[in-house]
Each structure stands twice: as structure tokens, then as C-alpha cells.
Amino acid sequence: MTVTTPTHHILTVLVENKPGVLTRVAGLFARRGFNIVSLAVAPTDDERFSRITVVVDVESAPLEQVIKQLDKLVNVVKITELAPGDSVQRELLLATVAATPEIRGQIIELVGVFEGRILGVGPDELTVCLDGSPEKVNDFEQMIRPYGIVALQRTGRVALPKLDRRHPPQLHGIDAEAS
User: Fold this and answer.
1) What total number of domains does the chain contain?
2) What is the pLDDT of residues 159-172, one digit of tens each?
3) CB of 94 within 8 A of CB of 152?
């Protein structure tokens, strides 16, 4: 049995939510020749911080070097590597697909099988939405491609660590004796 080493690594980078931070992070990747496979950025539950989820091609640079360079940036608060097996990963796909009345039912059925949604219906097109694991989104994209993709947008991967199920959750702010 051969074990394959992943060529992509997922990093979540907690940064100060300030203008220019994303430019500095992206600039670092460009200057160092690190290939970004996917990049997603959004504020966290604390408005002072944003989380950047970046999928890095480690064949373009050693992961340790990427982390060291990121850690040197002033606005970077914390860097976490997420192993695929230890993280929950999701991606969103929006697509407008050619859908004449004769084949529309096939596309609607396919969207249903993948647990997607129809967002818009035109005379000869459907706009569909699907979220899920990157593999599921890839599979769906390949299945709708033969119908004719008019427009397509994917968000890029977002990820968080999986929850530790070995320890029961702690109740915060609740008097345990009252329950």
C-alpha cells in the first residue's frame, strides 16, 4: 500500500481586520513564488480580526518556509495548519447552466441528488448553488459541465478544526447545580 503525501496544505491565518492586510499576505506569496490554490477571507465573530483560509501548493515552497514568512508579517496574530482529516472543509459554487426546457428536468434532478438549490430560472438557463466538501463541489461541477456552463464562481475553501468529541462540552455561564 502506497501512502501519498498531500501536495496541498490548509493554513488558517488570523489577522487584524485592518486595511492592506490581505494585500501584504498576497504580496508575500507572490514575492516568494508560493502558489496559492485557494484563498478565502472574512471577518470572524470578533470584528477586530479576520480569518484568511489559504490552500498552499507545497511543491512550490516548503510549508515551514511559508509559515515563517507569514509569521513575520505585523498584522498576523495566529497561524494554524489544518490537516485534511482533522478539519471540516467547505466550498460554495454558483453556476448558470444552459437548460433548455427539454433537459431542464435532468439538471434539476442532478441538483437535487447533490443537495443543491435552484436560485434562478430563465427561458434557457438555470442558476444553481451548491455547498459542500471540495470533492463534492468538484464532482458536481464535472456533472453539470456537459450541459454547458454559462458562468461559474467558486468561493475557495474555508476550513475549521474538527471538534474534539472525546470530551463533553463545558457549560459556560450556567449554574450546573440548577440543572
Assistant:
1) 2
2) 999 998 776 655 55
3) yes
**How much is the pLDDT for 179?**
43
Q: Cβ distance 33 to 62 under 8 Å?
A: no
Outline where the chain has alpha helix (H): 21-32, 63-71, 104-113, 134-144
Is the pTM of the predicted complex or chain greater than 0.85? no
Q: Looking at the predicted structure, is the pLDDT value of residue 178 above 50? A: no
Given 82, 109, 127, which residue is the final one in a domain? 82
Q: How confident is the model at residue 60 (pLDDT cuts 50, 70, 90)?
A: low
User: Residue 93 in contact with residue 135, Cβ under 8 Å?
Assistant: no
Task: Compute, in degrees rounded to 10, the torsion defined by CA atoms 75, 78, 82, 87.
Answer: -100
What's the rounded Cα separation, in Å, for the pair 82 and 41? 16
In a domain, 170, yes or no: no
Domain of residue 126, residue span:
88-161
Same domain as 48, residue 114: no
* Residue 111 neighbours by CB distance under 10 Å: 22
